């Protein structure tokens, strides 16, 4: 970036307005990502649990959860290595289709081809093939995830990114709702069966195959919509003046002057604190999402239909949070909006941790858990809608992919550690499934304390349309 261009005021000449239609279309990338990961999280931990229990000839689920955690962690460890690599590669890529699109298309199509074979190998009880296919799925998903996420800040000025990220996340959660609804009607528990009263060979494979097939088809459709509607090179040229103005109004401790200049000390401290806080909230959040289906089946003795309903309730409240998060940011700023989300989530986990000791595992799903996860969903939506924009706020346009890699590296380190750690805790004789909400509460408490020290920065803000007026922007 030319220093002269940064110093030249462009505020009056180029007003900042969020293009809602374009942002929704960019959201199709995240739609496909969350659609796939929701299916992956809903089913794969249970697939592994059942096959490990069979391999070790045990009926006690806690005995194999450390192995489930290790397998899920290996996937995340691979993602930790690959996502920064693909982010940096896409930063330096120049093609007729743009710098992000080649990775998005190749990764999506190969991932969609592999994904439906996961339930097939599970049906035929092949543990080795299941692990290999899960690893391949993660590899190609990571190829397109970083570039897909980086596409939004590539094409959105910095002051508008929280609002745009809310739209992107709404699209993602709509994708995630599809397999959740399918799970409610297909009833995975009838196939897995907590008592295993049906032999494997008599199971209906389509009960578990349909969500994977549908996910693959919709991933391809969403990628094609993105490819034909978003012309990266053309849009980057058209948006250059708005992006320059966004640099002027960034919420950073010290302004970014040159693309090649090292980060200032103030911005570096801000980045490190955000990434540490992010690490701990993902320790909590991923720990819960990885083991919640197993918690429902093996601890509560309830059907996965109940877990799917709970996920749907949480998703609806998350969408509400994403919708209003941008409006809240305009009033109190990113730091305090994110802090509010952390506190709401912390309170939800605290209630769950206390009430978990009153649960009698009698085959029913406690109604209060729906309310707990509703607040958790709303709180974490306020966190996610602001955290990624706060990270990429600290870099220039040429480093968005690299900083997207930093953001996901922090989350992936957490998602590598937390399944293993929780699995080991569940293996410890004095602990059982009650440890899950207590563990999440502890991690979220650390995250909240760390984030308090992030400096609250207010930029020279432009007037951004919100509400009904904002939705009407083109």
Q: What is the gist of this entry?
A:
With 474 residues, the protein is an all-alpha fold. The chain is built from 17 helices and no strands.
List the helices and strands and how they pair.
Layout: H1 3-7, H2 20-55, H3 65-92, H4 101-114, H5 117-123, H6 127-154, H7 161-186, H8 188-192, H9 206-229, H10 232-248, H11 265-300, H12 304-332, H13 334-355, H14 368-392, H15 400-427, H16 435-452, H17 467-471
Helix pairs in contact: 2-3, 2-6, 2-7, 2-9, 2-11, 3-6, 3-15, 4-6, 4-9, 5-6, 6-15, 7-9, 7-12, 7-14, 11-15, 11-16, 12-13, 12-14, 13-14, 13-16
Residues in helices, as a percent range? over 70%
Radius of gyration: 22 Å
State the order of secondary-structure elements, H for helix, E for strand: HHHHHHHHHHHHHHHHH
What ranges have pLDDT less than 50 throughout 5 or more consecutive residues? 1-12, 188-202, 460-474
Q: Approximately how much beta-strand content do the residues carry?
A: under 5%
Number of strands: 0
At the fourth level of CATH, the homologous superfamily is MFS general substrate transporter like domains
Question: Architecture, CATH level 2?
Answer: Up-down Bundle
